[in-house]
User: Fold this.
Amino acid sequence: MIKDKYNFEVFSKKPIKLMSDSGEWLADFELDLSDKQLKEFYYDMLFGRLLDERFGQLHRLGKVSFYAPSSGHEAAQIAIAKAIDWGNDWVFPYYRDNALLYSSGVPIKDIMAQMLGTRLDPAKARQMPSHPSSKKLNMFTAASGIASHIPAAAGAAIAAKIRNKGEAVITTSGEGATSEGDYHAGINFAGAQGAPIVFIVQNNGLAISVPYHKQSAAENTSLKAHAYGMPGYYLDGMDILACYYLMKDLLERARAGLGPALVEMKVYRYGPHSPADDDMRYRSKEEVDAWRKKDPLLRMQKFLAKRKLWTKKQDIKMREEIELILDKAINEAEAEGFAPLEWMFDDVFKDKPAHLLEQQKMLLED
Amino acid sequence: MNITEYYGQTITYREALRLALDEAMEQDERIIILGEEVGRYGGAYAVSQGLYEKYGAGRVLDTPISEAAIIGTAIGAAMTGLRPVAELMYVDFAGIAMDQIANQAAKIRYMFGGQIGVPMVLRTQGGPGRSAGAQHSQSLEAWFMHTAGLFVAMPATVSDAYQLLKEALQFDDPVIFIEHKGLYTSKGIFEPGTALPFGKAAIAREGSELTIITYSGALRHCLAAAEELDKLAIDVEVIDLRTLNPLDVDTFVESVSKTGHALIVTEDSLTAGVSAEISARAQEGAFDFLEEPIMRLSGEDIPIPVAPELELAATPKKADIIKAVRKILRR
Assistant:
């Protein structure tokens, strides 16, 4: 296995961290992020948290039909977003990437329009909420079928290898996806091709309600990389700096033609799988509260406070500002109204065949 | 290569397919081929033979035996700028990759609001005829025809094999291209200039008394039956659908309106099969002209058996077609 520049341990027994729970820098290399960057990392995590909470509110108001709670996954997702070369790399996210989505640079009103299914949605209100996409950012729409996007991500990486222009592919999933045949099919072929791709597993320990020990006998999902002939890394997914430095390194290596990798980021999901799920039937409140004490935002607050980059007062102000941005985006998205009937037959194919023109004509004439 | 050198020559269905791939790969660098043993081995049915040597391992990719990987990676490559041709050795194995085909390839353009498409061709082959049994002999075109977002082509002739594949390779949407395992060695005069465009049905034989509507491997049985019927002074018209999506309803409705009688011949299973759809469309379009009920001859609703005599009996053949035509016309 190739040693990466920060000497992250391959197939470590314990999750790798660079930041202690109390916010101390643990690594033996120098932190080379500016104060501005560090503050931005935190801001994006906070935005991701409040965005997720707002999705919950919209669901309770009956305005969105579905969303996949992401609170607890922010450090992992913002780290991934910050390591991606947006527009050059290709991104195949999953439905729980709310914070990653915000940090990617997709306009917040587009995110809200997608959630609400309004006319403003660039995907024309065709996809389920929490299945975002952006052509401009090379971000592909998430699949509802678990791991269905993994072979496509591998294919994008093989195409990137053929083009040989320094593009990398990033794909995310939960740990549940690693049980699917399509996960194996995609990662195995990517390994055989040495394709430029990083597979990221955000392991929150639950496939809907089924705990990890019932999903797999492997100690963690990073170990599976061994069988695919690529390095596997086991990270503390609540540590944004560990996730960021490793991702940056792995993506640089992939772009340079040094092959794929598999990363598990150990996280925790505070919310249910989806609003249709009663999570108190399969875990205790105590368990959730214990994980909340390890919250990725809290850890980053402590880290920043030690550098005089965070105060409680500033935090309250930031939250207020973010809530206003969310209010404005929702208003903008809603003002456009729902997607019209005239769009219904578009984009089944690039050009409408005769039978669709006929069906459209009959529907609109009624 | 200069394709015109082959014009007027007698070549096989397999060679016609290879010519289409070769010419398209020369013309468009974005086209790659991927599948199980499509490279060095040249494909299970030898369609891609010689292309690995000509275009190299970077454009003709031998894949692991994984239908989900072959089709799924083709989808990803198509979404990001290439034009892959994925080969599925037997259409029966589509089951292993059906999520990729029906939930990914077919739906990406729509779910993405038309911002990107999946310009790929899935080449596969189906049909009975080689004592290959229940998992290597099926005619599953109805699965694809039923799924919104997929074009479906099923060429029956040498010129169509070339013409439809060449066109499919220029489409911006996924095309399920189903060859027939019984046709690879069939020969014909290569005259692509006379072939109709993708989506148009061909009148394979003109006639006045009854319309047979068919496609793919069943066409040869229908044409052979028509020859025999001619000796009995029964004049039938034979329509070759060529593509199932788009389905050229106008051509067969016009023909049935002219003859007043229709027989649909397919090798897929009868119940909820392609013949049911065609029958419904012909009835809606030509109701006022029908002199007898529309009749269907399709595969029996059974898995295809291996024993040769049973396999032969499982799908319509010349004698069955002659009998059905005479029954409809009462002659």
Q: What stands out?
A: Chain B touches chain A through 47 residues (CB under 8 Å). Chain B has a mean pLDDT of 97. The two ends of chain B are 52 Å apart (CA to CA). The domain at 202-329 of chain B is CATH 3.40.50.920 (Rossmann fold).
